[in-house]
Amino acid sequence: MYAIRIPEPGGPEVLSWTEVPDPVPAEGEVLVDIAASAANRADIAQRQGHYPPPAGASEYPGLECSGTVAALGPGTEDSGWSVGDRVCALLTGGGYAERVAVPVGQLLPVPQGVGLVEAAALPEVACTVWSNLVMVGGLRKGETFLVHGGGSGIGTFAIQFARALGARVAVTAGSDAKLERCRELGADIAVNYRTEDFTERMRAEGGANLVLDIMGGSYLDANLRSLATNGRLVIIGLMGGRRAEADLGRMLAKRLSVHATTLRSRPAAEKAAITAGVLEQVWPLVEQGTIRPVVDREVPLRDAAEAHRVMESSAHTGKILLTR
Prior knowledge:
By secondary structure, the chain is of the alpha/beta class. The chain has helices spanning about 40-45, 125-135, 155-165, 175-185, 200-205, 220-225, 250-255, 270-280, 285-290, 305-315; strands spanning about 1-5, 15-20, 30-40, 65-70, 85-90, 100-105, 105-110, 145-150, 170-175, 190, 210-215, 225-235, 255-260, 295-300, 320-324.
């Protein structure tokens, strides 16, 4: 098969479309013929040498895919899946390829009403949003939820999901066009971080009960100041750096909590539990049309470098798909 390799860390130009050995499914894995994958910030960090794959994972980037079951590996004969089934999958790596071996617990059926290629936009964002808003953040009806990067794949999905939970949704983004799209998806409060202080805006709105943050260090203090009493901050990215100082006095006075989570490095059993929750609680919303994947563009997989350039420029809204 062919896959995108990263011979050495660097810019998008280092991504190499290369013939490589076909994957062989191990115990508990299913082999999937990939129809599409999607670009994620983690792929860029891996390309730059900042985010190596976990031990035992594929060396190729790609944290999600859609496609069809090509073969059942050992121990999956009674899993309920059959060769030819249309699936999408949460991956630890390997999505930038023509085939990938997937732990059976990380497979999801393609939701009704969603195309096979379009389904590649769903697994990583659905699992990330579900696990962090519900399992970690405990978002409840009537609360105010703030997501940074509202125009991203995570952001566009989180807006819709939080609205489905009955939350009031606030977003930040860097352009008025992206903010308008966020409003169309259901955002109640839209802040252009280039022209407005989101902390002041959130405090004027009564504070956020839950913040989902992709920035990390550079936003820590501002996020804590944006929270209402008993607020929760969930950090899932480090685009703004790894280190920052926090005012513990403010945290004590307002009874604030901070959680930092990743999805990629979790054990397979935890990923399977998250995937099962998504299938039960999120997939019905997708099939009803309450949540729809937001796709900015499709790029041929062999041209993954172009997808990375677009993502790094932040010129996109929603997901960038990589197609066969």
